[in-house]
Amino acid sequence: MDDLLIVEGNVTPLSSKTHITYQFHIDEPAACLDIAFAYSSKALEDREASRRMILEAIDKYAEPSISELQKQHWERFVPLQNLLTLSLDDPSGFRGSAHRHPPEQHHLLTEEQASPGFIAGPLPSGIWKLTISIHCVVTPECHYRLVVRKGGNADAMGTI
Amino acid sequence: MPWVPFELHTHTPHSDGRHSLLEMCREAKKLGLGGIALTDHNTLSGMAEANAAQEETGVAIIPGMEWTTFYGHMLTLGAPYCEWRDLGPRDIHKGIQRVHEAGGIVGIAHPYSMGSPICTGCHWEYEIQNWNDIDYVEVWHEMMPPYKHHNIPAFQQWTSLLNEGFRITATAGRDWHHSEHADGWSAFTYVGLEKESERSRPESVVSAIRHGRCIVSMGPLLHVEAAHGGATYGIGDIITVLSPETATIELRIQVEPSSVPGRTADEMQVTKLIVESNAGELAILPRTDQQGAAECSIPAAGIRWLRVKAAGMLAGGHATLAFTNPVYILAASNDELREPYSDVEEMDGVPAWQSRNIAAFTDGIPPEKHGTEKGATEK
């Protein structure tokens, strides 16, 4: 297993609605690609901050006729959560994404199989891109870590 | 024309759904659905499982995707993956063009859902410069859609757009994420196809939705026939009226109850049919006889579109049970229709906005054969 990318960083609410793209090079065609992604915190624990953000969203998005009722029941929108999702591009284009909530994810790609959301197939040499789409950060800070490794032997990767 | 019940908004573990495609199709079969659109968030990888699921269950699977972006969720049907990550809130037309060029159509999903941070990107915030680019809008979202608050402004917005002269299809979408027991019912989008077997051809389903051949319903099917000038027309068709001041359109509406358990005539009883238009309600037809067809004569003057809505009982309350997409009426000599669009290019003497459905997407049929009376059948 060869490490291709080990990166980490912090994002804040200002990074909501932005993408972070990492670019890496695969030298020889790989038999498998292993992507580990984790971020924390996931949920906003601060009750007062949650209430404020929910009321703001209701003012912005709810029908005026029902917004007062929605506000009374603001707690049903708790907990507010961060959402960061991954997508992958190989040298010739899109290879899939994992739009889902769990803040710890592990994805594998080989020629025959791929984790849900990704597209199985050859893993050619060239420039690859891995994008973190930061849909929303509600906590004052959110830390992420992303590790990409490649293997020459798909069997060494375990099951997908 | 066979009307095939579809579920047009679904998810699997390829995004954040909790049932496999096969599990969902087994459930779909129990619900009486003839097809689904697989619209996972930002990926089409789930289609790798489509052949096996379709073979086992007989439920047709149409490829789609839900663009799950920062500024809105947009459903695509019949297109491969098209790029969204490089688009800002004023760039949606660039994105729509990508889908259209790839042979697909786009629909705004749940336009009035709560947005971030409650539901990220769920409220439509993209700036739309030209509504002609939007093929459909999911005006009924989630389970029991007639009772959902966020569907009210979506339905109103669709009606306003029709009044402004746009031809946009309305659909339903359950936003189906799991097959566990659910209270209540989802709505169907009945799609009008030439033949039953066309339901597994994405091009046919896409074409039907693009042309407005859709009925949105909790169960009952509304067969609508509009007769004018010796021809009959159906939902999604355009009737050209030569002398609108004196002409009438003869409407014939037949309610076909669903045979799906929970949605039958006893359980979802239609109590009245309402003919709606750009001029408001044109007729209210009480339903006491559930068997016979309702008929009415509509003066064509000033009418640009009309649709039929069925009201009745749903889970102990009064609600809209079903509504059709419009039959459109084009007053051939009415120049004032052109005014708001006079700056757009004309095609064969028909303003581009009027010919949008027929010119931009003729499915290979030359405009002269398609005409403005597409779908009309001689009596």
From TrEMBL, chain A:
The superkingdom of the source organism is Bacteria
Q: What is the name of this protein?
A: Uncharacterized protein
Which source organism does the UniProt entry give? Answer: Paenibacillus campinasensis
TrEMBL record, chain B:
InterPro entries assigned to the protein according to its UniProt record, in alphabetical order = PHP_dom, PHP_domain, Pol/His_phosphatase_N, Pol/histidinol_Pase-like
Coiled-coil residue spans: none
Please indicate which superkingdom the organism of origin belongs to. Answer: Bacteria
Q: Where is the Polymerase/histidinol phosphatase N-terminal domain?
A: 6-71
Provide an example Pfam family for this protein.
Answer: PHP
Gene Ontology MF annotations: 5'-3' DNA exonuclease activity; 5'-3' RNA exonuclease activity
Q: What protein does this entry describe?
A: Histidinol phosphatase
Q: Which organism is it from?
A: Paenibacillus campinasensis
